[in-house]
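Re: your question about TIR domain-containing protein

S., sorry for the slow reply, the queue was backed up all week. Below is exactly what I fed in.
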Amino acid sequence: MSLDVFLSHSHVDKVFADAICHRLEAADIRCWVAPRDIRPGGDWAEAIIDAMDKARMLVLIFSASSNNSPQVRREVERAVNKGLMVLPFRIENVPLSKSLEYFISTQHWLDAITGDLEDHLNQLCRSVAMLLERLPPAAAPSQPAAAAAPQQAVPAGFGAPPAPAIDPAVLAAIEQALAQELGPIARHLVRRALLAAPSRQQLVAALAQEIDDSAERQRFVARCHAAG
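Result:
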């Protein structure tokens, strides 16, 4: 099922996230919010990526906690990379960190620092509804590809050689190197990239594109090369 809004917030601001989610869904705006929409025992990183694939925009609940949260930064970063509109909803008057400023400094902000919270929630609902009307509808989920016809075995010495396998120890080192830059989401990104990048060189190149910061990207590639 497609979604309208991905709610990004620090766990410290869960009360605000729940209130915003309740108000938006009362207006028939479909939301995704953690931890409510993550299955018990489910993979958090995979659930976040799947939700962003289905969402049409991200509402950032901006506070001192979310401003300094690496997880929130990664969510905003991935939303921007996916072309999602980001709407910050500021609940605390704190300076914007440089890591978030890079992604949302030019965005339109909604402030809920002073005044009645109910009025601010109503304004948020109106703004989200108006923006959703301007955005294209969510893409329909892709249909599974038809099963390929079974291939005949190729005798040894004929045909193209099989794709090189990646040593499990090297693969674990690559995942660990990516996790040092992007956190737990690395596990899901590695598994997804393996589907289209069967060799070590292709995998490292594909994963490096997931890192926006050039210094972090170079550090990741260097760690992968050092892994052997």
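The radius of gyration is 21 Å. The chain has two domains: 5-134, 168-226.

Happy to talk it through on Thursday.
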